[in-house]
Amino acid sequence: MIKRPQLARQLLARRFHLARNPLWQKVPMSNFEKNDFLPYQKLSETLRCVKSRLKRPLTLSEKVLYSHLDEPDTQDIKRGESYLRLRPDRVAMQDATAQMALLQFISSGLKKVAVPSTVHCDHLIEAQVCGTEDLARAKDMHKEVYDFLGSACAKYGLGFWEPGSGIIHQIILENYAFPGLLMIGTDSHTPNGGGLGGLCIGVGGADAVDVMANIPWELKCPKVIGCHLTGKISGWTSPKDVILKMAEILTVKGGTGAIIEYHGSGVESISCTGMATICNMGAEIGATTSLFPLNQRMIKYLCATGRGEIAGLAQKYQKELLTADKNCKYDQLIEINLDTLEPLINGPFTPDLAHPISKFGENSKKNGYPMDIKVGLIGSCTNSSYEDMGRCANIAKDALSHGLKSNIPFNVTPGSEQIRATIERDGMFEVFEQFGGTVLANACGPCIGQWDRKDVKMGEKNTIVTSYNRNFTGRNDANPATHCFVTSPEMVTALSICGRLDFNPLKDELEGADGKKFKLKPPHGEELPANGFDPGQNTYTAPPASGDDVKVAVDPKSERLQVLAPFEKWDGKDYVDMTVLIKIKGKCTTDHISAAGPWLKYRGHLDNISNNLFIGAVNAENNEMNKLKNQRSGEYAAVPDVARDYMANKLKWVAVGEENYGEGSSREHAALEPRHLGGVAIIVKSFARIHETNLKKQGMLALTFANASDYDKVKPDSKISLLNLKDLAAGKPVDCEIKNGGSSDKIQLNHSFNELQIKWFQAGSALNMMKELASGGGKGDAKPKDTKK
């Protein structure tokens, strides 16, 4: 008798063999969408058109991106300059951002999404007790939102992944990503799919609406940064250390406007899920996205996840479409030797402050970091693969064999229901519990601030170590005094055994329960489960053939959901003598602009969530958060309250900030909220890519100081005028006047608006313009494109 796992592997091999047959052309994009086929033939034709025009070798990312051009024979293609109109293959949205995206799609009046699209319920589940209890509580607490998302998906033709299914990026990797894919997702860590050779790009909800409405998606043509990998990953070094090193080299904004393209002999030593880890955290260096070339590790993963046909057809197009041309040119080239790469720990408060493990203890003492670690946390969308869990379980078993376990609370977040079920079947779940760990729900949890933390008081200085991707101030637990360090899951597990920052598992010994000294062995874990993946519970709901009879209701009295009202059109006049709502000092991420954590429950209600506007930003006037002077009344109040007062009194306002404003999450609420509360412009030294686009989509003027030192000319009580707006044009600076008492300064502000984006501003928002075009029967008419070629 053939055992089930053996039979499954034989069937996969058979499907893989058939897939390599050139006659086998119609391969579904996923096992859930049998009528939407891989677009390789069409992509190949488009790419040939582009190459005949450019007449130069192309990088891999250029091949994948340009093969998705809407009009390849006429579009201007210049790295870092031109805007590309693209046709993504699919859209993915997580539940926190999907609410607003679907509300916008509903208001467009369209009947069905034009491309394969999915919604993933992962953001609203708070870590409190354990996975089972936390999931049950979330289903009850957020029933209204889940019902809305589920019914909207059914009505408009989207796949719906229920709460408990897992984190969006892990689900995409397991089921939807493929080499050569172009996907947009309403989460900044969408680039995770680059681990399977796809260009997966984080966007705001308005961009997702465009694609779902069959409108070409616009992206400034990215530059390409090459990262040449040599040597091999081994010992305590992990794939996470590659991106931690890249963060050290490029900083949080060094990748802005660029795709990171990994290549070289070192690639083959990294598993598919390890490559996904590296691409995932590319968001922390500002990269548009990241990707790896098609290789045997990807082929193995595709086959192991039931997609042998995709693996075979991808190999047929490997040289033409899925590999960089010889002698292609990168805008920047970085070299990393994996043989000499040391494990890194980055932080606190920023993901680009890197410490080699050999110097981490010394650096921590010198900088006054709290040396005792309070909590260790592994998992999240960045590091929750079977391999990650296996390597951590291997370390835990090593410690247990010496009578030791975690010295601190140790939380484990599986990336998906499939990972949870498989590690439970293979005994890792039990190992983590014996180690003293708590297995949390298959969800984002503490990584995004969904953590009901009780072990420290607010404001208490403390340290946590995580395998997450982001460690901005207050990110995980809303406590600005928490020092969060991001590192590999293996290093988190090892540090949790000792419980201190000055433990180096590469050289330091531990004392076992028998009093004998020992060193932890370098971790080992299988790349893929020998007995195949266990899918666990079925958490997917496919849309019906027709959604005509499905009702999507939004209660007007709801505190969670709110039907959107269109923003006002620009009245054609200059903005004169506007008030400065807030001059922000230092780092201002989307977490500072629109906090997550407990505020996630209002992501579908614009007015309610606007009560968190700028509450985490530091006011340059007094170095305090959420306390500023109302220039109209002279009283100090919370930022949202002052903004509402200005709006009620018809005072237009601006906000002023520093470098890389809006880095971090893709959440468009950070752009919707200032627009909703009466803001008209954000003026900063520089923007993060996604947030700048989100502001434009909502009709805001996203402007940068032509001279960064002009930031110092703005005072809390300044009056700002933006002049000659009727002449707003691509590449032409905006005239600005800053009045301070009896004096004034005239400066210039730069912008990156193109002609289409200027029309968004004039119409009041991109959605307003879409409606205008649709009602006029113009280019905005939604006609599903043919994805079956």
Structure explained in plain terms:
- By secondary structure, the chain is of the alpha/beta class.
- It is 31% helix and 19% strand.
- The strands form ten sheets. It has a seven-stranded mixed β-barrel. It has a six-stranded mixed beta sheet with strand order 8-7-4-5-6-23, sandwiched between helices. A five-stranded parallel beta sheet has the order 18-17-16-19-20.
- Pathway: Carbohydrate metabolism; tricarboxylic acid cycle; isocitrate from oxaloacetate: step 2/2.
- It catalyses: citrate = D-threo-isocitrate.
- Its cofactor is [4Fe-4S] cluster.
Q: Which ranges are low-confidence, i.e. pLDDT below 50, for 5 or more consecutive residues?
A: 1-11, 17-21, 777-789
Q: How many runs of DSSP E, i.e. beta strands?
A: 34
Shape, please?
globular
* Assembly annotation: single chain
Q: Number of helical runs?
A: 25
Binned, the helix content reads: 25-40%
> How far is the N terminus from the C terminus?
41 Å
Mean pLDDT rating? 94
As laid out across the biggest beta sheet, the strand order is: 24-29-30-31-34-33-32
Structural class: alpha/beta
Radius of gyration: 26 Å
Summarize the main sheet. 7 strands, mixed, barrel
Strand content: 15-25%
